[in-house]
Amino acid sequence: MQNEEKKHNGVSREQTVGRRKTASARVRLVPGKGSIVVNGKGMKDYFPTALLQQKIVAPLKTVGKEMFFDISVKVAGGGTHGQADAVCHGIARALVAWNEEFKPALRVEGFLTRDSRSKERKKPGRYKARRGHQWRKR
After folding, report:
1. How far apart are CA 5 and CA 21, in angstroms?
2. How many Å from the N-terminal Cα to the C-terminal Cα in the chain?
3. Spelled out in words, what is the top-level CATH class assigned to the domain 2-109?
4. What ranges in 1-138 are assigned the alpha helix state H?
5. Per-residue 3-state assignment (H helix, E strand, C coil) for 66-104
6. Residues 85, 113: contact at Cβ < 8 Å?
7. Angstrom distances, CA of residue 85 to CA of 8, 37, 102, 127
8. 3 pLDDT above the threshold of 70
């Protein structure tokens, strides 16, 4: 039954979710020619900096499948760096769902670990989460 759910119009696909801070990315992975589309735009249009593009493609390069999958991503929340990390996390999880043999290599690189660090809430009587008021003698 699980294999029947993965089949969509005769093509198997994987759908996973990646998260980082407040960003959430829904990743759909389908066999193809290597195109990556983020929120209806090309990856290079949505993430213009080379650093973020490398971060997104890193899980694919780790398993040697850069030109083997077409990837469609819907990402929301957070900023550009958080979104890029969420997409990276989602792609890594989709690759593991596609083939369990990729798991050790992706685990070693740290792509499967969800980075749980997020902004600490502001506390009453302080300027920010921990920054207190400046002490003045007079």
Report:
1. 30
2. 75
3. alpha beta
4. 2-6, 43-46, 50-63, 80-98, 103-109
5. CCCEEEEEEEECCCHHHHHHHHHHHHHHHHHHHCHHHHH
6. no
7. 28, 15, 19, 29
8. no
Contact criterion met (CB below 8 Å) for 31 and 11: yes
Reported as a pLDDT band with limits 50, 70 and 90, residue 6 is: very low
Looking up tokens 């294999």, which residue turns up?
Answer: 3
Q: Is the pLDDT of residue 86 over 70?
A: yes
CA angle (45 as vertex; 102, 107 as ends), nearest 5: 15
Extents of the domains making up the chain = 2-109
Quick check: 109 pLDDT over 80? yes
User: Is the confidence at residue 25, as pLDDT, over 90?
Assistant: yes
What pLDDT, on a 0 to 100 scale, did the predictor assign at position 12? 79
Judged on CB neighbours under 10 Å (0-12, 13-18, 19+), 26 is: middle
Residue 6, helix vs strand vs coil: helix
φ/ψ (deg, to 5) at 73: -130, 135
Worst-scoring range by mean pLDDT, 9-13, 124-128, 130-134? 9-13
